[in-house]
Amino acid sequence: MRLAILGGFFMTNNFYKTSMAANQTNSTLAVTILRDALIPELTGEATGILYWVGKRLARQFALAKDEDLPLFFEQTNWGTLKRIKGKANQQVFTLTGEMVATRLKLNDQADFKLECGFLAETVQNQSGFMAEALVDSVNIKKGIVTIIVQVDTKDPLDFELYEQPETLELVTPKKEATE
């Protein structure tokens, strides 16, 4: 079993599956306190740090398939992720849902750099080209965040230097049997 260090905590490959098996309800309060109150208080600002944390999380929880992104975002309580445009050099996503709306209601300056970093690294790993992401627009009233992932198709990853992460097998929700 491989161990990785993230923020001082030891995490094993089964961290995700164990967490999903616990079947705990997502807490908006806990996430909001950590992201929008505690981290900025500890660091003085969270924006830059959360982007790089998102990239690191994407390496640790590497998604094998593009289709896994919406499910992972839902499971992590980051919101409902939907790709609205996809080209080889640019992908555009919207992020919506109760958590997004709540965070924007509590703080109209709430950032979504963690999600941007995760998307950038995931697209980079899946495409084989360098990628960066940014929040393009925020509609506070509708609770919609638009994120653009820019892929540099002229800058391929050097797989000899760049370690390929072990991919994560997502736990898919069990469909309830109908009687």
UniProtKB/TrEMBL annotation:
Gene3D superfamilies linked: Trafficking protein particle complex subunit 3 (3.30.1380.20)
SUPFAM superfamilies named among the record's database cross-references: Ligand-binding domain in the NO signalling and Golgi transport
Lineage: superkingdom: Bacteria
Pfam family, one: DUF2507
InterPro entries, alphabetized: DUF2507 (IPR019642), NO_sig/Golgi_transp_ligand-bd (IPR024096)
The name this protein goes by in its record: DUF2507 domain-containing protein
Lineage: Bacteria, Bacillati, Bacillota, Bacilli, Lactobacillales
